[in-house]
Write a sequence for this structure.
C-alpha cells in the first residue's frame, strides 16, 4: 500500500490551472478566495480517447491573445484558446512515412511568446522535438487553417538514444535536450547549432560507470541560460555551468527512485524536485542542501511541477491522479483535487488573477454607475415631491384667500342689509309721528 499522510488543507489563493491526462482530457481547475480557496474542476475539454494522450503542453503568457499548444500521442499538435478551449488550428507532426506516431512520439513542445520573424498578428511559432531526436521550429498561420507559414527549420539533436525532454530559456534563444542515452546538450535556436554538451561523471571507486539516462531538466534562471539543473534515472540531481566546465558542478542523490520532474524557483537558486515514489522537496542547488520535503505524501509518481510566476505556490501532479497546490514557504498542502486519470502535465494560467481584477473593477464601475443612477433618480423624485408640496401649499393658500374674501363679502352684505333695515324702520317711525 502506498504511504499517505492526512493533513488539513487551509485553502489556496485565487488561481487557475490546466491539467492534461492520459486520456487526452484537459481540465480547468480554479480556486477563488470567496469560495474559501478550495480548488475545484470548473471545465473539461475534449472526449476520453487513449490515442489522444497529452504528451507535452505549452502556454504563452501574452496579455493579448494567449494561446495553448498541446502535443498528443497520435502525432497531432492542437492550438487552443486557453480561456474557453476553442480549437484554433491543428498541426500534423508526422514526418517519416511508414513510422507510427507512437514509435516516434513528441517528447518536447514549446510555444514561443514573441514572434521570431515578421508575421501576421494571427500566427504563432512552435518548437517540437521527437523521441528519435528530430527537432523543428515551425510557424503556423492561424488565419488559414489549411496551410502553414513557410518551411520549418529542422535538425537532429542526437545521433542515438531517445530524447525524453526539451526546455527553452527565458529569452527563447537557447534550448536543452536530453534523454536515455543522450547527454544534456544545449542549442542556439537562431542558428540551429550545438553550443555545449555535458560530459558524464567518471567511474566510481569500484570502477562502475553509470549509464546516461536523463529524465528532466530546467534552466536555473530565466535570465541566465548558462546554469542548468537536470534529474537522472539513478536518483541524482546535477547542476551544470556551461561557462565553467562540461561535468556537473554540484551533484547529489535524492531518495532511491528516479527523478521525474524538476522546476526552478524565482530566486535563482532553489529547485523543486519530484521522484517516482511521490516525494516532493525543495533544494538549495548552490550547496545541494535539502531545504525540506513538502508535507503530505503523494501516493504515485510525480510527473510535472509548475511554479506560479506571481503567487508563492507550486502545483504538482502525477500517476496518483491528484492535482496538489503547495505553499513554498511552509511546504504545506493548500488544496488537492482528484481528477480520475493519470496526469502528465500541469500549467498555470498567469492571466487569471488580472482577469478577476478586471472583472471586479468592471463590477465596481457598474455598481458606481447604478448607484449614481439611483441617486439621480432619488434627486429627481425629491425635486418632484418638493414641487408637489410647493404647489399644494400654493393651492391651500389660494383656497384660504378665497375663503377669507368670501367671508369678508358676506359680512359686508350683512352689514348693508342691517343698515337698510334700520333706515326703513326710522322712516316708518317718522311717518307714524
Amino acid at each position: 500500500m502506498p504511504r499517505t499522510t492526512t493533513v488539513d488543507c487551509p485553502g489556496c489563493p485565487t488561481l487557475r490551472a490546466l491539467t492534461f491526462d492520459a486520456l487526452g482530457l484537459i481540465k480547468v481547475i480554479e480556486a477563488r478566495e470567496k469560495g474559501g480557496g478550495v480548488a475545484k474542476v470548473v471545465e473539461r475539454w475534449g472526449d476520453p480517447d487513449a490515442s489522444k494522450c497529452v504528451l507535452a503542453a505549452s502556454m504563452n503568457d501574452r496579455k493579448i491573445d494567449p494561446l495553448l499548444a498541446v502535443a498528443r500521442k497520435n502525432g497531432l499538435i492542437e492550438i487552443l484558446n486557453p480561456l474557453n478551449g476553442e480549437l484554433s488550428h491543428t498541426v500534423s507532426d508526422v514526418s517519416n512515412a511508414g513510422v507510427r506516431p507512437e514509435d516516434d512520439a513528441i517528447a518536447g513542445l514549446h510555444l514561443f511568446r514573441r514572434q521570431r520573424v515578421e508575421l501576421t498578428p494571427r500566427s504563432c511559432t512552435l518548437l517540437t522535438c521527437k523521441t528519435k531526436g528530430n527537432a523543428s521550429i515551425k510557424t503556423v498561420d492561424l488565419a488559414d487553417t489549411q496551410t502553414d507559414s513557410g518551411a520549418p527549420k529542422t535538425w537532429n539533436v542526437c545521433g542515438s538514444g531517445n530524447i525524453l525532454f526539451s526546455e527553452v530559456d527565458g529569452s527563447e534563444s537557447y534550448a536543452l535536450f536530453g534523454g536515455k542515452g543522450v547527454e544534456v546538450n544545449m542549442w542556439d535556436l537562431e542558428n540551429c547549432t550545438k553550443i555545449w554538451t555535458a560530459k558524464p561523471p567518471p567511474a566510481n571507486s569500484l570502477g562502475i560507470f553509470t549509464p546516461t539516462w536523463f529524465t528532466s531538466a530546467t534552466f536555473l534562471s530565466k535570465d541566465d541560460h548558462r546554469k542548468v539543473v537536470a534529474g537522472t534515472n539513478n536518483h541524482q540531481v546535477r547542476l551544470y555551468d556551461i561557462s565553467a566546465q562540461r561535468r556537473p558542478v554540484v551533484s547529489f542523490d535524492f531518495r532511491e527512485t528516479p527523478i521525474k520532474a524538476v522546476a526552478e524557483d524565482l530566486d535563482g537558486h532553489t529547485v523543486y524536485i519530484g521522484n517516482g515514489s511521490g516525494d516532493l522537496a525543495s533544494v538549495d542547488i548552490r550547496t545541494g542542501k535539502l531545504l525540506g520535503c513538502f508535507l503530505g505524501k503523494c501516493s504515485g509518481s510525480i510527473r510535472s511541477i509548475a511554479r506560479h510566476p506571481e503567487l508563492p505556490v507550486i502545483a504538482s501532479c502525477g500517476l496518483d491522479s491528484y492535482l496538489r497546490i503547495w505553499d513554498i514557504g511552509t511546504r504545506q498542502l493548500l488544496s488537492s483535487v482528484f481528477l480520475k486519470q493519470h496526469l502528465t502535465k500541469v500549467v498555470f494560467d498567469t492571466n487569471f488573477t488580472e482577469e478577476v481584477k478586471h472583472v471586479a473593477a468592471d463590477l465596481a464601475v457598474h455598481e458606481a454607475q447604478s448607484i449614481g443612477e439611483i441617486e439621480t433618480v432619488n434627486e429627481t423624485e425629491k425635486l418632484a415631491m418638493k414641487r408637489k408640496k410647493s404647489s399644494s401649499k400654493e393651492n391651500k393658500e389660494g383656497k384660504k384667500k378665497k375663503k377669507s374674501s368670501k367671508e369678508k363679502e358676506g359680512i359686508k352684505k350683512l352689514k348693508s342689509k342691517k343698515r337698510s333695515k334700520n333706515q326703513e324702520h326710522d322712516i316708518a317711525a317718522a311717518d307714524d309721528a
